[in-house]
């Protein structure tokens, strides 16, 4: 028996998120189905980040156990021949039998993309959120600084979350402008359900002038989802980096 780690990239547009659901197809379901057929045994992957419906990833991590004699590094090549075009394995490698991606210390980095302009850009419609309302990015940067560090992010978590603790650490938030594209890049030790999308929505409200930067402190202290801004649409969110410490 060996444990294999996969680095998985996917366009989440057509999927109901990572985790297996009763009401639609998921990334996890596709991996299980095609790995089981390839290796001729029942395979169930363990994912590191349970991305939501419509969210994309460049580097989500999954592991599974197998009795196959196929070298771990060759599984990516064989599996990519079977997977749909919107899912591709970027790397496969053998890891220690006790390696568990959700139990290791790590840094996850997400990006939320906003396309700003008078009109939408069709080629960006699946991977960014369109806004025609002007945003003051400097106000957004000032607000983002209050979110860095270790905080209780209950106000920035969906009320449906079942997390035992809502305390997380954000190492860095950057707002990067490239022409019409604004990228909100957030690195942390872990994220709550919808946390990045709620942070993005709150920063947008700051950029519109509806919240002042210093009000972020009050929103954190409230520990109330209603105190923060809206949850931004899923299509603008991508998991871009996953580093184990």
What key attributes describe this structure?
245 residues; alpha+beta; 10-stranded mixed sheet; 5 helices; 22% helix; globular
Low-confidence segments? none
Distinct helical segment count:
5
* C-alpha termini separation: 26 Å
Class from helix and strand fractions: alpha+beta
Name the shape in a single word: globular
Specify Rg, calculated over alpha carbons.
19 Å
> How would you name the oligomeric state of the polypeptide chains in this document?
single chain
**Mind describing the biggest β-sheet?**
10 strands, mixed
| H-E order | EHEEHEEEHEEEHHE
- Determine the strand fraction and express it as a percent band: 25-35%
Give the total of beta strands: 10
Overall mean pLDDT stands at: 96
Instruction: Give the proportion of residues in helices.
Output: 10-25%
Task: Please characterize this protein's 3D structure.
- The longest helix is centred in the C-terminal third of the chain and has 14 residues, at 195-208.
- With 245 residues, the chain is α+β, with helices and mostly antiparallel strands.
- The protein has 5 helices and 10 strands.
- It has helices at residues 27-39, 72-80, 137-145, 195-208, 215-222, and strands at 2-10, 46-47, 56-66, 87-95, 106-116, 129-131, 149-152, 167-178, 181-188, 237-244.
- The radius of gyration is 19 Å and the shape is globular.
- Strands 1, 2, 3, 4, 5, 6, 7, 8, 9 and 10 form a 10-stranded mixed beta sheet that branches.
- Helix 3 crosses helix 4.
